[in-house]
Amino acid sequence: RQKRRSFLRLFLFNKFLNEYEIASKQTILKSKPRSMLVILSNVCNINCIMCGQRHEKRTIMDNKFINLIKENVMFLEKIIWQGGEPFLYPNFEDLLIFFFILTIIE
Prior knowledge:
mainly alpha; single chain; 9% strand; two-stranded parallel ribbon; 106 residues
């Protein structure tokens, strides 16, 4: 219960700090991100003719960016998984389990 309160306190402090920084038109922010759009990879198992990704070199997100997401997840209100097919990312299930457990514990 105490852990949940401290988590909520950090989350709300960051949210208010972020709102203040935006309202005061600061360009360098001390607050953590509140939302993320994450492109894990551009790997896809469908070959849609209208998709520009099918001609690109196949890439997968580096672990340093995964760690950056994990470090900031407690401040996130929203995370959007995008890219090719997120389920083709080798560790997508592990990421989902990590975020699920974190939201239950925190």
